[in-house]
Amino acid sequence: MPVDGLWVLEGTPLNLQCFGPGPDFHLLHGNCTKLVKTKTSNSGFVTFNDTINVTRADGGLYFCHCPPGPSSNAVEVVVIDPDLDPPELLLPPLQPLPAPEGTNISVVCKGPPGAATFRLYRGSPGGAVGQRWVAEGGAVSFSLGPLHPRDEGAYVCTYSPKAGGVSQPSPSLLILVEGGDATPKNPDWPGCKHWEGSH
């Protein structure tokens, strides 16, 4: 399961950093099967910045491997189509916040007519919570719960039309849970990391 991720606009560069003992660093795409690039460095990290114009095919999971050790945790790259406007992410009316621990709440992701698939994320693309399909109507409801303080955070959603592509993410919706900690969390994940300026 990916622990980190980033949004990248179609047609822009993709930059990933890999940290490890080296000296050989292998960037893998997909199910750890497709070798993208190999670099050598004794500095403890390398930057893979060879993808100049990202396409939909560049989306997915990336791993870093420094032989003879294991591969890193996955980084999920979601390639978004700048021509697809962001959806809205809404709480139903009268939903109290902070939500009591142990309760269930629903959030609604509303896109344009023709939106076929919706995805809900907590934080980055690596925090995918769920995916729903909708035949028509352009909106779908996601149920969250029973809530725990660790579920607190900023949520966003995206949609995909039947023709493919991923929309820009919605504005974030902060879900507060009683007993939670609303301070931003920026863990220092090992392995592949995105480099500043990637999006």
Write a structural description:
It is a single chain. A hairpin with a 4-residue loop joins β3 and β4. The protein contains no helices and 15 strands. Residues 183-199 have low confidence and may be disordered. It has strands at residues 4-9, 14-19, 24-29, 34-40, 45-51, 60-65, 75-80, 88-90, 105-110, 115-122, 128-133, 139-144, 153-161, 173-175, 192-194. 31% of the residues are buried. The strands form 4 sheets. Strands 1-7-6-3-4 form a 5-stranded mixed β-sheet, with no helix packed on it. It is an all-beta fold and 199 residues long.
What key attributes describe this structure?
single chain, 199 residues, 4-stranded antiparallel beta sheet, 15 strands, disordered C terminus
Strand/helix succession: EEEEEEEEEEEEEEE
Query: How many helical elements?
Result: 0
In helices, the fraction of residues equals under 10%
Structural class: mainly beta
Please list the strands of the largest sheet in the order they lie side by side: 1-7-6-3-4
Q: In percent, how much strand structure appears in the residues?
A: 35-45%
